[in-house]
Each structure stands twice: as C-alpha cells, then as structure tokens.
C-alpha cells in the first residue's frame, strides 16, 4: 500500500519539525537545513515491498546529515540507495564525494556518517531502504562502494531505474506473494550495479576497514584505565554503530569486548611483578586498569594465567629474590 505525507498538511510554522520527524521515521535519524530563500516544501510517497522500502521524495531542503552522534545512538543497520530523478545531488561518505545526475544511483550506509546536498531549488529522488545484510549476500566490501556514482548510462543503472519506476506505479497492485521475489530482484540489480564499479573488482583488503581497526585499537589503548570503557562508548567515540563495530572485529582473533578484557589482564599481569609497584595492593592495580570487581578479576586472571594474582606476584618475588 502506498502512503503519502507532505508539508502542506500542516501550518507553515510547523513544517520544518514535521518534515524532520517524517524523514527520521521513514529513513533513519538525521538532521537537515532549512531552505534560505523560500518556504520549506517536501512530500514523500512510500511503500513497503517485501524486504525493502521504496520512497519517492520531492523537496527543497538543501542539505541532510547523519552525524556520528546519530549513528552511535541508534542501531539502524540499513543501506540507502538514491536514484536521482531531477536536479543534481551530492553524496559524501567514507572520504568520497559522488555527484549524482538524473538516471544515476548511489549507495550510502547508515552505520556510518554521511551528508547529502542538493544544488537545485527542488530535487526529486527515489530512495530504496534495505537491510545491509540483504545486500551483503550479493556483494562484498560495501564500505568501498559508498558515495560512488553508478551511471544510469550503464546496463545495471538503466535497468534498476526502469524496474523501480515501474514498481512505484504498480506497488498497490502487487500481490503479497510476489513482493519478496520482486524485492530480491531489485536487490540483485543494485548489487549488479555496484559490482560494475572499478573498486568492486579490487582484491586488496579494504583500506577503510584497516583504518577503522587501527584508530579504534589506538582509542582503546589510550583509555584502557577508564572503567567506563565499553563497546558502546567506543562506538559512540568512533561515530560507528555497535553492529558495524562487531563486523569490523569479525575477522580479528577476539571481539572488541574480549579484547578490552584481554588487554586489561595483560596490563595487570605486567604491573603485578613490577618492583616499583610492590607497595600497591592487587585490588588497587586491578582497579587502576578499569576492573571494578576484585573477585571477578581474580577468577579471570587465574583462568588466563593458571595462577591467582597473588600467586603470580609471589612467584615473581621468589624469582627476583631467591633464598
């Protein structure tokens, strides 16, 4: 079923808040700028088709942003695919800038910040929202394919636009039993367009993936003593969603939560045998590295090293000062 919402349905002094609430509920949490030289105008038609949402949007909002704060505060794990209908759009994400002309499409990932800009007084786009996991079944390395224009002159871009345009007109007539098949076909066509991009054929590991891992590990090391350090706090600081953080560490020996625990145990293991810290208690050392429960720390230490913290310390003293 197709639904329509428009700013003309509310008084002019309420339109900006109404529009912002509308796009946040339909897409993901966002912020946007008001037009400077004319009254705000916006209308959206939206339909649910199988596993994806299709929207058609006309508006004169010049800029839209999803900030690191929006990402860290929400668990929205979607990809958005923007098909430009009229006016030019600019999509910025992952250090790339894509200019999108009518007929082109572009991908952006809601698990990371992005910015959209429109240089015409009124723009017209169709937007597909689908779970990231659905698209990952058909194409890998999505983080290297965001903010990159897929030309409408290519076969995949042209076919996708044709399919979506037809679907928009026929959405109300689509039998529920057919909806998922149509949704799958559109997802596969999006993937085909993305696979046509030059970087999709690169065998190199994702530089963005490596960059995120490096900066996240550096952040954790700097704040290892902070008892409030957690997966959630790291995600917020990095401007990434917790789900994206989990995916980054999927190929690592330890998930992030376990890595924090492991590094803290290693730091305590080292400090307990440091002669300069001999006057400090076991609990004091444990708490200084972010642990907040002595008994739990002692059990974890023994599981890791085969000795309690006190036994490890005493063994080191015996070695350093033999009788």
Automatic annotation (TrEMBL):
Residue stretches making up the HTH araC/xylS-type domain: 214-315
InterPro entries associated with the record: AraC-bd_2 (IPR035418), AraC_XylS_family_regulators (IPR050204), Homeodomain-like_sf (IPR009057), HTH_AraC (IPR018060), Tscrpt_reg_AraC-type_HTH (IPR020449)
A GO term, aspect molecular function: DNA-binding transcription factor activity
Keyword field: DNA-binding, Transcription, Transcription regulation
SUPFAM superfamilies recorded: Homeodomain-like (SSF46689)
SMART domains: HTH_ARAC
Keyword Lyase: no
PANTHER family: ARAC SUBFAMILY (PTHR46796:SF6), HTH-TYPE TRANSCRIPTIONAL ACTIVATOR RHAS-RELATED (PTHR46796)
Name this protein carries in UniProt: Helix-turn-helix domain-containing protein
Species this chain originates from: Hydrogenophaga aromaticivorans
């Amino acid at each position: 079923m197709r639904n329509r919402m428009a700013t003309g349905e509310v008084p002019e002094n309420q339109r900006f808040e109404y529009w912002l609430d509308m796009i946040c509920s339909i897409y993901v949490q966002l912020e946007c700028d008001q037009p400077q030289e004319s009254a705000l105008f916006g209308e959206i038609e939206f339909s649910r088709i199988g596993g994806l949402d299709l929207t058609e949007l006309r508006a004169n909002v010049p800029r839209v942003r999803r900030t690191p704060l929006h990402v860290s505060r929400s668990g929205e794990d979607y990809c958005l695919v923007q098909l430009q209908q009229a006016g030019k759009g600019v999509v910025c994400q992952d250090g790339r800038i894509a200019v999108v002309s009518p007929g082109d499409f572009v991908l952006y990932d809601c698990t990371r910040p992005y910015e959209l800009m429109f240089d015409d007084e009124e723009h017209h786009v169709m937007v597909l929202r689908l779970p990231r996991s659905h698209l990952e079944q058909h194409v890998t390395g999505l983080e290297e394919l965001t903010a990159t224009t897929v030309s409408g002159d290519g076969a995949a871009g042209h076919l996708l636009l044709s399919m979506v345009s037809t679907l928009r007109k026929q959405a109300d007539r689509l039998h529920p039993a057919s909806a998922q098949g149509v949704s799958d076909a559109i997802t596969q066509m999006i993937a085909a367009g993305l696979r046509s991009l030059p970087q999709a054929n690169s065998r190199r590991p994702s530089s963005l993936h490596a960059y995120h891992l490096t900066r996240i590990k550096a952040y954790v090391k700097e704040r290892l003593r902070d008892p409030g350090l957690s997966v959630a706090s790291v995600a917020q600081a990095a401007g990434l969603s917790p789900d994206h953080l989990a995916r980054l560490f999927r190929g690592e020996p330890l998930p992030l939560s376990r890595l924090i625990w492991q590094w803290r145990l290693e730091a305590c293991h080292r400090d307990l045998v440091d002669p300069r810290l001999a006057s400090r208690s076991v609990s004091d050392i444990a708490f200084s590295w972010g642990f907040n429960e002595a008994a739990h720390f002692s059990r974890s230490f023994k599981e890791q090293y085969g000795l309690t913290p006190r036994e490890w310390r005493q063994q080191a003293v015996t070695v350093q000062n033999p009788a």
